[in-house]
Each structure stands twice: as C-alpha cells, then as structure tokens.
Specification:
Layout: H1 8-28, H2 35-42, H3 46-52, H4 56-80, H5 85-101, H6 109-117, H7 122-148, H8 158-179, H9 183-201
Helix pairs in contact: 1-2, 1-4, 4-7, 5-9, 6-7, 7-8, 8-9
Length: 203
C-alpha cells in the first residue's frame, strides 16, 4: 500500500476516502465499488485519490482494515464487559439493535468482505482471517471469565464454544441480511445462549 500521509490534512483526506469507500462497499459490495463514486462522495480529484491509493485493490485493503477497526471497536468493549449471563444477553441485544437500525442491510461488514474476497485476494483473506480470530478471541475471553466465575463448567472448551458462537452469529447475520428480518439473528444468538446454558448445567 502507499505510504501513510505525513500531514494532518493528508490523514483527514485519506480517512475521508476510506470511510466513503467503506460505506459504498457496505451498500454495494466490493464488485460494485467505483472509484469515480468515491471521488464524488469525497470531493477529491483523481490525482488526490491516486496519491493515497495505487488502485482499487489498494483502497479495498484499506477498507478491510477500517471495517475491522469498526467491528472490533464495537464488539471489543461489549464482549469485554461480559462476565455472566446478563452481560452476555446485553451483547446479544446490542448486536440485534445494530442490525435492526441498519434495516438488516449489508450483513456483517467483515463477513461480507470475506465472502467476496476470500477466493480473490489472498492477502485480504489472511487479514480477514486474523480479524475473525481476534473477534473469536474476544468471545473466548468472555466465556473464560464466565468459567472463572463458575457460571460455565471448569472443563468447558471455551475455544470450541467461541467458534460455535461466531459461526451462529455470522450465519444469523447472513440470514437476516437476506430475509431483511432480525428474526434469524435473534434465533441464532438465542440458540447459542441456550446451548451455553445447557453446557453450564452438565454435571
């Protein structure tokens, strides 16, 4: 990728371009991203755009990083506060609220990118894999705190449980995006919590 801008004005211009590209990709997908639309949305010239980004692929990599920052910036604090069932339910409600507020459009900002880029861009696939691993790690840490407090069995495999939770979350987000209804997401997250409760009840 191109060198990061050294001035505040340059950083602000680059950020404006990346944020606009994120919004357009979220609405239209990677294939639907047009650099002319980015320039129009940001009021930048072609020379400015190519000063900060070599090409569309370069800009997409910046979009991946920015969407990762956004998603982890929301889920990090929410999952970091999880230490019991009530807090886990608050995280579940936050996810549903966010999807409902978006009208069930776009799906998961990171998941949608993975769906488009995993078979097309190996460097983006690896970056997105790292993001999912970090996100899953946040879930695992939350479940470990529940283990430590005695709300889950000491023998619980939090790594396996966190993978299952992430798979349910992503599946629910995809189905909600497709059906334009939060119900599939609610069902997926509720089923995950029910399963965790069942694990907690095992002797």
């Amino acid at each position: 990728m191109t060198t990061a801008p050294s001035t505040q004005k340059g950083r602000e211009t680059r950020d404006r371009i990346v944020n606009a590209a994120c919004d357009l990709v979220f609405e239209r997908g990677v294939a639907g991203l047009n650099l002319d639309d980015v320039r129009e949305a940001t009021g930048t010239s072609k020379s400015q755009l190519y000063h900060y980004f070599e090409d569309k692929s370069d800009l997409i990599k910046a979009v991946v990083d920015r969407q990762a920052e956004r998603v982890l910036g929301v889920h990090g604090p929410a999952l970091g506060a999880v230490d019991g069932w009530s807090a886990l339910r608050r995280w579940r409600n936050l996810v549903v609220r966010l999807v409902r507020a978006a009208g069930c459009h776009g799906g998961c900002p990171v998941g949608s990118l993975a769906n488009e880029l995993a078979e097309l861009d190996e460097s983006s696939r690896l970056r997105l894999s790292d993001v999912f691993a970090e996100w899953e790690g946040l879930v695992a840490a939350a479940l470990q705190r529940m283990v430590d407090r005695g709300e889950l069995r000491a023998s619980s495999d939090v790594k396996r449980l966190s993978t299952a939770a992430m798979a349910s979350l992503q599946g629910g987000l995809l189905l909600s995006k497709t059906s334009r209804s939060v119900q599939p997401l609610e069902v997926a997250l509720d089923a995950t919590i029910d399963y965790l409760r069942a694990v907690a009840a095992m002797s």
